[in-house]
Amino acid sequence: MKNNIVADVFVIGGGPAGIAAAVALKRQNVGRVIVLEREPEVGGIPRHCGHSPFGMREFGRVLQGSEYARRLAQLAEAHNVEVMANTTVVSIEPNATLVVSTAEGIRQLQARRIIMATGVRESPRSALLVSGDRPTGIMNTGALQSWVYLRGLQPFKRPLIVGTELVSLSALLTCRHAGIKPVAMVESHGRPTTRRPFMLLPRLLGVPVNYQCEIMHIDGVKRVESVRIRQRGVERDISCDGVLFTGQFIPDSALIRASHLRLDPATGGPEIDQFGRCSDPTYYATGNMLRALETAGWSFREGKLVGEMVASDLAAKKAAPPADIALQSGDEAIKWLVPQRIVSRDIGQGIDRLQLRVLKPVQGELQLIQQGQILWQKKRSLLPERRILIPLSQLKNLHSAEPITIALKNKE
Question: In terms of CATH architecture, what is 2-121+250-320?
Fold first, then answer.
């Protein structure tokens, strides 16, 4: 193993959250800050996107993804953030210690704090339990954008797009850029996952959208030839030369699973408090590795906030108090919530809102309950993959360290 590299803070991941965190640290006069990026350049997912809109809040103008990624790189350089590209983190160890693989070999890194911002990845076909042949022409959005924008290649001409999330529309724009004409979009639910007005895009592009569809089988020898779907009990074949699986993101948390850090099974990411601190207080996490999925702009702002909190932690003369109150789901309709723990004496500092998602459409009273006492409640109509926020300021003046339950009552 090569000699150690020492820094004040290592940031794992050079996407919007990671770069924003690193720049925030440098703006707070933190000494040596190094971003570890496994790809040749920083920029994260936007680097693979040739369409807009990115960057309005961060840079004051609408940018295409590739230009947004360049702006992130320029921002890091302007603030003297070091970048170690083509660097893969092999393991994370207690007390802010990392083992990485570089072109020069395996190295050990030591810091005062580590910020993890590894982002998300799309669920593969296997995770979606789609049966059938294994011909060429089956991929996800990330692979498509890499083929089109980074390599200038056209992987298919008439794919079937699976999903109606926001990223599904990104895939549509990528197809349009490459001269690819999707034959249809299919969605398992009875309504789009993204907001209805956004579904004007496939209509404008002449792409039919089929709801309440289940993929039964993918057929093809050398490449995809057709897909069998079941819609409202009726099966039929759709002729196509590719299948594009979109969305259903999960945090890229393989490092967490193999480490000493606590993992939240609901989000698939690390468990944090309102400061972004993990179960080992020398580690912080930010961006979409906390949960799937938020926009690049949201991740950038979140990264900036966590960077500022890490800078404050480094400047503090005494150790931060532990997170003493757990936040937990009290209803099967709640998919996940972040943060999972809070430091009760520091309510009002750090992340100021509890974020959650639901698995299915539901209406009712959203409540925060501790020991049978309702701390906060509001009647809400909730939909899957919509941002749901609860002000953490509602939890001030707590007199107990018992867990707080997020519940849905009087459901309609």
Answer: 3-Layer(bba) Sandwich (3.50)
